[in-house]
Backbone:
């Protein structure tokens, strides 16, 4: 058991944060986009699932002692290429939940020294495993704000009677 329980808790809580952010939204609200080139709430979830896949790989590369630069990914083409806005939110969240839980179990097994193992990220900066785990939770929080902005913009565009907020009963 490591002394990084707060990092693991934040990492694990990302699933609950995302579930809470979209609870009560219907398909129309989940797939609504604030404008051309902007993501829907569903696409934000797809992006975060993609990011979690990449973070899972990065964690394992760091733990393996690999000297290969950690991968980046092209978020917009990934979301677009897999028709992210057509994804079932329940499927995206279930996959996300499973991968978070699997990684959390790994993280609980690590020693304090494992958390300090380093690699070079795609930008050329040195990062520790702790940085990667904390960074993912911070990234998810950033996108929670994006989902909130999408919901607010959808509510404003739809009017008070038909907005997602009204459908949620808020």
Residues:
């Amino acid at each position: 058991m490591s002394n990084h329980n707060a990092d693991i808790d934040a990492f694990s809580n990302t699933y609950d944060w995302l579930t809470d952010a979209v609870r009560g939204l219907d398909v129309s609200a989940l797939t609504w986009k604030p404008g051309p080139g902007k993501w829907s709430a569903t696409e934000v979830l797809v992006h975060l699932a993609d990011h979690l896949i990449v973070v899972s790989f990065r964690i394992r590369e760091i733990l393996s002692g690999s000297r290969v630069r950690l991968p980046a990914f092209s978020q917009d083409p990934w979301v677009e290429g897999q028709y992210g806005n057509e994804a079932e939110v329940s499927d995206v969240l279930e996959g996300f939940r499973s991968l978070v839980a699997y990684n959390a179990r790994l993280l609980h097994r690590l020693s304090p020294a494992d958390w300090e193992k380093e690699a070079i990220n795609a930008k050329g900066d040195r990062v520790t495993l702790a940085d990667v785990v904390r960074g993912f939770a911070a990234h998810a929080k950033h996108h929670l704000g994006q989902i909130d902005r999408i919901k607010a913009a959808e509510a404003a565009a739809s009017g008070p009677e038909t907005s997602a907020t009204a459908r949620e009963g808020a």
